[in-house]
Amino acid sequence: DTEVTQTPKHLVMGMTNKKSLKCEQHMGHRAMYWYKQKAKKPPELMFVYSYEKLSINESVPSRFSPECPNSSLLNLHLHALQPEDSALYLCASSQVRGGNTGELFFGEGSRLTVL
Amino acid sequence: AQSVTQLDSQVPVFEEAPVELRCNYSSSVSVYLFWYVQYPNQGLQLLLKYLSGSTLVKGINGFEAEFNKSQTSFHLRKPSVHISDTAEYFCAVRRRGWGKLQFGAGTQVVVTP
């Protein structure tokens, strides 16, 4: 069983909707990540939070808005998405530098369909 | 910056046959190396990792990989595959200390009876 939990597993939304993806981990990790994965492609990094602060934004459009309310939770707020944003969204967590073995732990993903 | 090349996009293999998935990387600094597996409609699961020490790394589900520094390779092997090994396999590299996890393009393994 994965120790990174993502909800919902599936989400269908229209281009005018506002929705959120949620991610939770209880491994004590202080780095959390959002990845986007299209079919038959590797995951693409979107955002990285380190100690609850945004440390990396890979030039993601503003219709995606990340939030890290505390060290265990990570949200991705979605607004005015386009059909090409349909993808599997993966959350991951890891230790940060100093105790970092480099390994990311991934959730099962949220499959998003934008109509 | 680091980069990862997976030399095969798809590898068909018969059940109980051996399989090798090739991965080459480039980096100007020391890195950690990983193999992840993604089963259909699931997230990524770590198969094994190389951090330091012995160049032969054993992972879950009978997989192993060998780190070759001179050839900058980290090939994944399994001596006898099962139908359940059908999945996408990603090689990945990350700079020691802190850095982004860089994935290869992936190798689709299809195991048939």
In short:
Chain A is mainly β and 115 residues long. Helix content of chain A is 0%, strand content 56%. Chain B has 113 residues and is mostly beta strands.
Blueprint of the fold:
The complex is a heterodimer of chains A (115) and B (113).
Chain A: E1 4-7, E2 10-13, E3 18-25, E4 31-37, E5 44-50, E6 53-57, E7 64-70, E8 73-79, E9 87-94, E10 105-106, E11 110-114
Parallel strand pairs in A: 2-11
Antiparallel strand pairs in A: 1-3, 3-8, 4-5, 4-9, 5-6, 7-8, 9-10, 9-11
Chain B: E1 3-6, E2 10-14, E3 19-21, E4 23-26, E5 31-38, E6 44-50, E7 56-58, E8 64-68, E9 73-78, E10 87-95, E11 102-103, E12 107-112
Parallel strand pairs in B: 2-12
Antiparallel strand pairs in B: 1-4, 3-9, 5-6, 5-10, 7-8, 8-9, 10-11, 10-12
Structure description:
The complex is a heterodimer of chains A (115) and B (113). In chain A, 0% of the residues lie in helices and 56% in strands. By secondary structure, chain A is mostly beta strands. In chain A, strand 4 (31-37) and strand 5 form a beta hairpin. The radius of gyration of chain A is 13 Å and the shape is globular. The N and C termini of chain A lie far apart (31 Å). In chain A, 34% of the residues are buried. Chain B has 113 residues and is mostly beta strands. In chain B, 0% of the residues lie in helices and 55% in strands. Chain B has strands at residues 3-6, 10-14, 19-21, 23-26, 31-38, 44-50, 56-58, 64-68, 73-78, 87-95, 102-103, 107-112. The mean pLDDT of chain B is 93.
